Amino acid sequence: MSTPNRVYIARLAGVAVFDPNGDQVGRVRDAVARMRPNQRPPEVVGLVAEMPMRRRIFLSINRITSIDADAVVLGSGTLNLRRFEKRPNELLVLAELLDRRVQLESGQPGSVVDVAMECGRTGEWTLTRVAVREQTGRLARRGHLHQIEWDRVGGLGGVGDNRGTANLLAVLEDMRPADLANALQDLPDARRNEVAAALDDERLADVLSELPERDQVEILAALGRQRAADVLEEMDPDDAADLLNELPPPEQDVLLDLMEPDEANPVRQLLRYASGTAGSVMTSEPVIMPPDATVAEALARIREPQLSPAVAAQVFVARSPLTTPTGRYLGMVHFQRLLREPPADLLGGVVVNDIDPLRPTTPLPEITRRMATYDLVAMPVVDRNNRLVGAVTVDDVLDHSLPRDWRNRDALRTVPVTGEEPLDGSDD
User: Fold this and answer.
1) In 3D, which of 414, 420, 426 has the Cα closest to residue 75?
2) Which of 16, 40, 189, 212 is deepest in the core (most CB within 10 A)?
3) pLDDT at residue 38 is higher than 60
């Protein structure tokens, strides 16, 4: 294997994995070590790589030809695409060791910030050294950093609950919300809830939207009601309504009462609509502007970074008031049309209104058919008085058209690749 003799595993997180032809097949998310008796350092048996569609698979250490901080390269062989499942005697190094509270030989407490694996003369990789930062009261993160042999660190033997979250969060911080949600699903429930609680409200709101309903509910319950209400305020109203729909009505009412009225009111409105209708899947906060706004003003509005691509793809034009339910709905303008018009032109002169808007009661199959027919990424939803009450976007349609458990990796259909011996060192 062409690789440094010692590799610090936290530095591998997110590194691209390439096949022998130079094609990227995924990214490293963790390392798997096998615990051994008599306090012998754990043996590293492979890496966990994240593939497209969020599937995590096992890469045997014996099939890896090169490891460094820029890339991991696989040798010849066929990937086994079965979802990785940790065995009872195995350890996920980053998920279970980072932030572990340990004890130095001097008796000084510390926390794990990284773990090194080394390749011996026989080609066996083991966890040999631990980077530990001294804890000195409130200045814990400023304590001295020590690199210590595995067997000289106290507190590494059991899984335990003596962990923080700072270093694991540092490894995860650059992940997209969907990828971070996927990483949380690999953690034990208690650890998952601990890491989720350490995220700031906005980041946690984005991650919750990408998790299966069961995980959403469990994390929300672990936060406590006031923190849960704060996170719900940061979620898009439609996502918050979907999550609250998983809770008993009394608990919904408690959390809605704890939210700020301006944030809770749109969610309450969405909760009134029947499941599987436009009202139940729409966002109540599309981009809405008056007809006397200019094209330049509209372009500036859709550049706002907090808007999702689907929401920013078009501007809905209505009479005031401009919060839903608005005044009379006039039509919409796609961003491509805005790019082609003079900046000083008024939206009222370029608005398109030749497609009938949806009603809150329009069923999901009809919404899907109409959006596909007209190649739209969003459609307006109006009430009986022709007031805009929201918009259904293509991501809303996809979320509610897929199977209910589509975010749960256990429900993913795996397709093993036949051929040579699979890249799964955990198979006997």
Assistant:
1) 420
2) 212
3) yes
